[in-house]
Automatic annotation (TrEMBL):
Source lineage: Eukaryota, Viridiplantae, Streptophyta, Embryophyta, Tracheophyta
Domain (F-box): residue spans on this chain: 6-48
Organism the protein comes from: Lithocarpus litseifolius
Gene3D superfamilies according to UniProt: Ribonuclease Inhibitor
Name of the protein in question: F-box domain-containing protein
Any one Pfam family match given in the protein's UniProt record, by short name: F-box
Length: 90
């Protein structure tokens, strides 16, 4: 017996879920699940807290990369957490 499909979940509910998965998953996992998840992953609400401290792999911290991520938030970023060994130029 098949249950409900993730792609049928209301967008606002999915946004609520994606705000909790973390920055690394929002960058490297979620956008590649399906088209609807990619679209929802671009919602500015998902990008309020940008936490590079939780990355399993060393995140690229070039200025342009950070600008791209912050632009995803469309001005909604409330917190950016950088690793303790962060280059001065960042």
């Amino acid at each position: 017996m098949a249950g409900p499909k993730w792609e049928d979940l209301e967008e606002d509910c999915l946004v609520n879920v994606l705000t909790r998965v973390g920055t690394e998953s929002l960058l490297y996992d979620i956008p590649f699940v399906c088209k609807s998840w990619y679209r929802v992953s671009l919602d500015p609400s998902c990008w309020k807290i940008i936490n590079f401290q939780e990355f399993v792999h060393q995140p690229p911290l070039a200025d342009e990369y950070l600008k791209l991520i912050i632009n995803h938030s469309r001005g909604n970023v409330t917190s950016v957490m950088l690793p303790t060994s962060c280059p001065d130029e960042v």
